[in-house]
Design brief:
253 residues; 2 domains; single chain; D-Maltodextrin-Binding Protein, domain 2; alpha/beta; five-stranded mixed sheet
C-alpha cells in the first residue's frame, strides 16, 4: 500500500513539474477565425504536444489597442493587414506581416431562395433589406460594396442596405433583421450555421468582383525569443494550417 501511495505522489509531482514547464502561447485572434481555431489547435497539438495554445478573441481594432497598451500576447492573427502593419511600423511586432489566409464573401439567405441569377437576385422586390458590414469600419463591408459596384448593382440597391458595425453584427442582422446578407464565408462553417445549404441558402460571391481580404499574422515583441510562439507562427503559415483554412471557406494566399 505504501509503495502504491508513493507511486501516486511521484506521479502527481511529475505532472506538476511538467505543467510548470509546459509551453504556453497566447494568441490574439480576429473573431472571424474563431470557427477554425479548434481544428488548428488540434492539428498543432499533434506536432507539439507540450505547447498549450491560449486564444483571445476580439475585433482586430480592439486587439490592436490592447497590444498597444501592453497586453501580454505572443502572436496576433488579424482580420486584415492594416492593424499588424501598424504594429510592425511601431516596433511592437517583430516580424513583417504575412498573409495566412484570404477572407471571402458569401450571399446568405436564412430562407431557401433561387440564386440562379447570382448577385442579381438582390434586385428581387421580395428582398427589401440587405445586411452588409459598414465599409468604413470593416474590410468585409468594403469588399461587399466593391462587389456590388463592380456588378453594376450598387446604385439600385443602396436604399436596401443596412449596415452592421462588425462581421458578427452583420451576420446577426442577416439572420434576424434582413432578408439576405453579404457575410464572411467563414462564418457559414460555424456549428450554428452548418444547417444552411450551399445553392439553397447561400452562394459564393465571385472573387473577381472584389479583393479577397488579406488576413495577416505577426510575432509580437514579447515573444521574440520564445521558440514555442515561433513554432505556432510557422505552423499557421504551413501546409496543414492552410488546408484547414481552406476547409473553413478561406481562400489561400
Amino acid at each position: 500500500m505504501k509503495k502504491r501511495w508513493m507511486g501516486i505522489v511521484f506521479a502527481w509531482m511529475a505532472l506538476g513539474f511538467a505543467s510548470l514547464h509546459a509551453g504556453q502561447v497566447t494568441v490574439a485572434v480576429a473573431a472571424n477565425v474563431s470557427y477554425a481555431l479548434d481544428d488548428l489547435k488540434k492539428a498543432f497539438a499533434k506536432e507539439h504536444p507540450g505547447i498549450e495554445i491560449r486564444t483571445i478573441l476580439g475585433s482586430s481594432g480592439k486587439l490592436t489597442a490592447q497590444i498597444g497598451n501592453g497586453a501580454p500576447y505572443d502572436l496576433f492573427m488579424a482580420a486584415n493587414m492594416a492593424y499588424p502593419e501598424a504594429l510592425y511600423r511601431g516596433g511592437t511586432a517583430v516580424t513583417k506581416p504575412k498573409v495566412y489566409a484570404k477572407g471571402a464573401l458569401a450571399l446568405l439567405s436564412p430562407t431557401p431562395r433561387d440564386f440562379d441569377e447570382g448577385l442579381k437576385t438582390l434586385l428581387s422586390p421580395s428582398i427589401r433589406r440587405i445586411a452588409v458590414a459598414n465599409p468604413k469600419a470593416a474590410p468585409y463591408g468594403e469588399a461587399a460594396v466593391e462587389a456590388l459596384k463592380k456588378a453594376g448593382l450598387y446604385d439600385q440597391l443602396r436604399s436596401k442596405l443596412i449596415y452592421g458595425e462588425s462581421v458578427s453584427q452583420t451576420l446577426a442582422y442577416t439572420l434576424h433583421a434582413a432578408d439576405v446578407g453579404i457575410v464572411a464565408k467563414s462564418s457559414l462553417f460555424s456549428p450554428k450555421l452548418r444547417r444552411f445549404e450551399k445553392g439553397k441558402n447561400w452562394i459564393d460571391i465571385d472573387a473577381t468582383l472584389y479583393r479577397p481580404i488579406d488576413q495577416g499574422i505577426v510575432l509580437l515583441k514579447q515573444a521574440q525569443k520564445n521558440p514555442d510562439a515561433r513554432a505556432f507562427y510557422d505552423f499557421v503559415l504551413g501546409k496543414k494550417a492552410q488546408a484547414i483554412f481552406k476547409a473553413y471557406g478561406y481562400l489561400l494566399p
